[in-house]
Amino acid sequence: MSSPKLNRSLGLQLVIVLVIGNIIGSGVYKKVAPMTAELHSSGWVLICWVLAGIISLFGALCNAEVAGLLADTGGEYSYYQKIYNKFFAFLFGWSLFAVIQTAAISALAYVFAESLNSVVHFPELLPSMADVSIGGVFYPFADLSVKLVAILLIILLTWLNSLGIKAGAEVSMGILILVFGSIFTIIVFGLASDVADTGRISMAVDNNTPVTVSAVFTAMLAAFWGYQGWASAGYVGGEIKDAKRNLPRGIVIGIITIIILYQLVNATYLSLLSIPELDDIYKAGNKIAAIEAVRNFWGDNGVLFISVLIVITTLGCCNATILSSCRTYFAMANEGLFFKGVAKLNNKQAPVNSLWVQGVWACILVLSGTFDQLTDMIIFAVFIFYGATTLGVFILRKKMPDAPRPYKVWGYPIVPAIVVIFCAVLIVNTVFSRPREAAIGAALMLTGVPFYYWFKRNNSTVTGKD
Fold this sequence. Notes:
L-amino acid transmembrane transporter activity, disordered N terminus, Amino acid/polyamine transporter I, 72% helix, mainly alpha, 17 helices
């Protein structure tokens, strides 16, 4: 979306808040179970969290160079028009709509509903239809009551955002302080409890199952959902005071803080729950590891505490995702590369049609799969574009060698090369380890190809240009 000259008013503190606030969502509470089911080793789970954090940090620093150079033109949709071409930029924007951001909204809403279910216990709906599937892949009626609550949340937040309601910086800061305080409460009381056993944390592998390179990458697929959101820092590159210093510092401090927090909280989960218990949580499909861990040392009161915490965290993250994501589709529609009606603003200056189109598709995705299925689709798709942005560091240094860069990525060319290679390996590994999720994600992304030419033809007809 085009904009006037951006006002550089954000200091280091708000950059850190932005980075951390956009990362902490549902992964910190739930992803330890699928990672354990893949690796069968608590030590390897913690290693994967660190590795995913380091790669996320490297990727964020590469993103910071691109954002610093092209900050005044918008986010990745605008970056790609300069780095590659309009078609690739459109494919990114379409992928945000088809799978990346809408599935993120769905996944966050799903965990919100699961957490609320732990508190109020929804009645089962149509249990006899739980095994009904579409092609043996989608089970729309499984956990139907949880899915319907998730859908209601998406509808409610979409409606609220269509009224122009959004959280201010003070509210975001307040929620972040609340979440951090609550998570550290879990860490301190969990590790100090009688049921905690740090001896459970070791490199030993349960059932003598070997830890393969493929298993590590598949487990990191889950960990990356926990770090998803760091790229948002690039969207405010043009609004940061002394961006050359504060943007990379904010990213580094924010992600290192998250790496330390994730190590501590996941070590707490792993000291409270055995590998078999975490396997059972993963197989259950509708349980959250953090809730079961806290149940072990605080009983029902602990379940209420952690459930309310997850509800607050996912509510805030889901609302932020709904609010920000629709802006890209609105910008595309203004350029004639999305459905024309999506370019409409209501009297509150909110992109109302963009919000509702996004909301409807997110609701459909809730019915289509489980939380882990949704997040694996997201990570597969998003790493294609993380790799493309990082590759853009090399391309822009060739295309625009003399352009002023507020920040140059540390460790060039090694750090961006590591990120590009890692993205390629992760994508290939996902194709083999999660073929269903990779195929669905790729298919949704590629639906944009015919739409691009359709939008382009219609736009040419209206403007009289080729």
